[in-house]
Amino acid sequence: MFFLQQCLIGLTNGALVALVALGYTMVYGIIGLINFAHGDLIMLGACLALTLVGALGIAAGGGAATWAGVAALVLLCGLFCGGLNVAVDRIVYKPLRNAPKLAPLVSAIGVSFIFMNAGLFWLGPADRSFPDLVPSTNLLAHDGLQFTLKDLLVVLVVVPLMVGLSLLVRTTRLGKAMRAVSQDPVAAALVGVDVDRVIAATFFIGGFLGGAASVIYGLYINTIGFQMGFQNGLYAFTAAVLGGIGSIPGAVLGGLVIGLVRALSSAYVGERWTGAIVFAILIVILVFRPEGLLGRRTREKV
Amino acid sequence: MSDSRSPAVPGPSGSPLLDVDRITVRFGGLVAVSDLDLDVPEGTIVSLIGPNGAGKTTAFNCVSGIYAPSGGSVRFRGKRLERALTPGTILKALAVGLLTGLLFAAAAVDVDRMWMAVVKRGMITGEPFTLAGAVERLRGYFRSELAIDQMAGKWRVVSSDGADVLAIKRDLAEARLVRDALQAKVTARRIDPGTVPDPTDLGPSDEPQAAGVTLPPVKEEVLDRLAAGKSRIRFRGWSGLALGLILGTAGTLAVWQRGRRSPHVVARAGISRTFQNIRLFSNMSVLENVLVGLDRTIPGGVLAMLLRTPANVRGEAAARKKALEALGFVGLAGDANRIAGQLPYGDQRRLEIARALATGARLILLDEPAAGMNPSETADLASLIERIRDSGVTVLLIEHHMNVVMRVSDRVAVLDHGTKIAEGTPAEVRRDEKVIEAYLGGGE
Amino acid sequence: MAAPPPSAAPLPPRPAGVGGWLASRWELVALVLLAAAPLCIPALGGALGGQVTTLFIYCILALALNVMVGYTGLVHLGIASFFGIGAYCLAILTVPMYPFRIGFLPAAVVAVLVTAGTGLALGAPTLRLRGDYLAIVTLGFGEVAKVTLRNLEQITGGMKGLNPVPPPGAGVTVAGLDLGKAFAIDPRWFYYLSLLSLAGVVLAMRRLETSRLGRALVAVREDELAAQAMGISATRVKLSAFAMSSAVAGLAGCLYAASLSTTADPNAYDFNRSIMVLCAVILGGLGSIPGTILGVAILVGFDTVLAPWADSWIQQMNINPSGSSALSFSGWRLAIFGLALVFVMRYRPEGLIPSRRLAAELHEEGP
């Protein structure tokens, strides 16, 4: 029963990781950039969420007002992070589209610093507690097993977003264009795909998912701080690599795996070794399956 | 150029230098090359022609190890172009596995506590720290024996990992007696009267219990836990070692397998190439480009290079000399110190050939060397290719300039849609109807 | 060495003393000036000497990173962990609380070997992969190494670190001079030790640049596939670079722990330090030795000179009576570095003192 409980915790946490990992994997898939600023973007989203909770006066509890408030938060923070992501792409990465790969990567590190500094001013140097809007009432009629309202919240936000994303990528014109650009941007441009628009859309979607994740993070973990982006970004990026970077289902699977590993190793080995265990698993995956769990092997163009 | 290489060694009797045997390359659903057979005899110039998209470069990439064919084989001087699985490879994998295993085992038995038991406890009694003592404590840790620790000037009898404190004494000798007595109790709990004792249990703990020591009360479950400690820590250690050994060995072999047919293996076997879209190191000097091709001839690793050992210095000087010779061979001797990317197009092509020749290849693959050249440059190139053959290097050529192909080739193979449609001397191929059809009807 | 034939196009002349001790005259001049400085500037015998020593040590660390990012073109985000491993290795082998006490030099040799080995162990499974993966692997390793150092409390002393690390030459008396005491009393001893190490590292880098491995590194950076087709094992070349970079970072760590006489706590070796060193290398000039050193000087200067001065000025002007961090200069530190990185990459990717070769490469329009 304890094991099952840990798995449940792991999957819920993993869904959150997956949401962040999607932002990494989509951007990497389309322009081959490790967007280091993504974790800090989410930190800024959490800052906004905290501010909005106060400004909108969202009531705690669990009634309809709370749920409406949460929905508004997800939407607003998603729009904010998506917009910010697009703006950063336009200002910082777009001029470097043809530069060697090092340039956008280092710029992303720079952007992450700027975000972190903004977060420092916004939140202050100490961790801040995020209001506990959604209570942790257990929904299962079982003593040993807990599935709280908070867990339900994660599922309620993450699952529709992911389903929506996969529908978008599979069925819409934009999705088709995104897949085309990720395979060969030059060829895509030649057949009339507006590559810049597709890249902007990718940044927006990645940012939106990150913004949503930041709200859930705040509501679920209840503590935010200006340095939270680094740790979360590291886990999420590891999840993206684990699942196969550039692959959307891979990011989801990777996120769930990371969540499970974190929960189980915290429960059975000790919280403080979690990072080392996740890292060891990453190395093992890279040795045996460098393209990731669901990734495709890429051929170099000659 | 020819003086710097060994005289041509013929391959095993009768077999060609390069033997491409029914290779097939698929990209997803697309078949780029299907069932291609091609023999390149030593000392000849063989050309591969065909309309664009016929699969010529794909075949080249297969030979030079950039793509792995989906089927068929490529043999060079009678051998497959991949690293052989030697006992050395397996030994190396096992060594890596052993190291990984030790790392995993260290993590599994909690290296931090082990350090405390082995090193720190050796520093507290005031006796000199000896290796023998450390080994004894290490064995004690793996037997999960009770140990003596110090805190605030008092001696404590603790479990080997320091988690349980069983007694606190002012006097070291007394603490030792208590330890031995408790250890005897723990050991007794582990061994049923009926079982054969494990030889490792016959330690100091089996000495008769000293009289006059009052044992502190120890809870039953604590004793049970301590008694189980030995098998627990051994299980952890061994399973960590086993897991690491398996992962490390298998991982090394997996990585080895992936790099087995890497282009540098092919290059070292004696096949070098140029690229259709010139791939020089364009920010290096002309000379340096050729020196990269000569990399292998310079002895010494990182240390030799940092210390500038005489052998390393001599090797560098010899390589420089050879590089200049290679540049002279292609007619670029005067440009040695220019930046490669600033050379005119035709010179870049010739530099690429010099770089490939410098590797000491027995077979050189030229991918459209005349592309973008004017007629006089093309004529020069044709004579350069002939001189390459005359120096003892076999040439496999992809070319669209028919006058070059017809002038230099000993044999010509024609590819269309990934399959070979004709092969023979230039004169034969020129008359072949399928070839004419492919070129005229193919709508290039 | 065969004299190269007369060159047709102008190429900056190769340094005359390719086989010599120092490649450029300016470096020799700088070394002589720095060596003479403590004799002329008495302040170097005090706290300033310690600060300059730290500057030299960071220079060594940055040069170590430069091997990876500059020469090999691989993004390495965990250099500080190798710095830390070197420091802790030295401390474990020399502190009085452990029985080894083998002295500075042997301990430094072991520490350098250990860091090089760690680099090999980390690089062997990952350097064959796409270059981007190394960024995440080194980033993760940096975090894991820091947490591990913190968690192995029995070995590393946890957050307290290991101290006191005895000075080099403790207990050794040469010509009536107790070396250990001399190091402990007069910071100029450490000044010279680290200056000497820095000079040695610069020399090693110069030799690397003009050697077989240096050429192979550039070849792999410019076109990995073409380099492989010329018989160069890209993995081996990258591994050599990684091992060398780790070893030099380990050396820097040894000097750091010895000069502070403590390892400090593991947080001294975290991501922030890695990134600051990366900033220095990028700001100064990727692949350029003088550039890297200038970059370190700027960053250290920012932290130890400019920021305190600006903060005290702001306080004097009474601009910030409420003490808000947004109105203090050092509160903007991260943003300033971030902006610097973004602007450098946009407008001058080759850095302040560019390396001739990389300048051309970084301005190339890629595929």
Question: What topology emerges from the helices and strands here?
Answer:
The complex is a heterotrimer of chains A (302), B (444) and C (367).
Chain A (H helix, E strand, L loop, with lengths): L1 H30 L6 H19 L7 H30 L8 H22 L4 E2 L19 H23 L1 H11 L1 H6 L4 H27 L1 E2 L3 H16 L4 H21 L5 H15 L14
Antiparallel strand pairs in A: 1-2
Chain B lengths: L17 E10 L2 E11 L4 E5 L6 H8 L7 E6 L2 E2 L6 H22 L2 H8 L12 H12 L4 E5 L2 E5 L6 E5 L2 H19 L29 H39 L4 H7 L1 E3 L12 H8 L8 H6 L2 H21 L14 H14 L4 E5 L7 H16 L3 E5 L3 H7 L2 E6 L2 E6 L1 H6 L1 H9 L3
Parallel strand pairs in B: 3-11, 3-12, 9-10, 10-11
Antiparallel strand pairs in B: 1-2, 1-4, 4-5, 6-7, 7-8, 12-13
Chain C lengths: L24 H16 L6 H26 L6 H16 L9 H23 L4 H21 L1 H4 L16 E2 L2 E2 H7 L1 H23 L2 H11 L1 H6 L4 H27 L10 H14 L4 H28 L16 H15 L8 H7 L5
Helix pairs in contact in C: 1-8, 2-8, 2-11, 2-12, 2-13, 3-4, 3-5, 3-11, 4-11, 7-8, 9-11, 12-13, 12-14
Written account of the structure:
The complex is a heterotrimer of chains A (302), B (444) and C (367). Chain A is built from eleven helices and two strands; from the N terminus they run H-H-H-H-E-H-H-H-H-E-H-H-H. Chain A has 302 residues and is mainly alpha-helical. Chain A has a domain at 23-228. The longest helix of chain A is centred in the first third of the chain and has 30 residues, at 2-31. The mean pLDDT of chain A is 90. Chain B has helices at residues 56-63, 87-108, 111-118, 131-142, 172-190, 220-258, 263-269, 286-293, 302-307, 310-330, 345-358, 375-390, 402-408, 426-431, 433-441, and strands at residues 18-27, 30-40, 45-49, 71-76, 79-80, 147-151, 154-158, 165-169, 271-273, 363-367, 394-398, 411-416, 419-424. With 444 residues, chain B is of the alpha/beta class. The model of chain B is unreliable at 1-13 (pLDDT under 50). Chain B has 15 helices and 13 strands. In chain C, 66% of the residues lie in helices and 1% in strands. Chain C has a two-stranded antiparallel sheet. In chain C, helix 2 (47-72) crosses helix 13 (289-316) and helix 3 (79-94) packs antiparallel against helix 4 (104-126). Chain C is globular and about 60 Å long. Mean pLDDT of chain C is 86; it is low at 1-22. At the B-C interface, helix 3, helix 6, helix 7, helix 8 and helix 9 of B face helix 4, helix 6, helix 8, helix 9 and helix 10 of C.
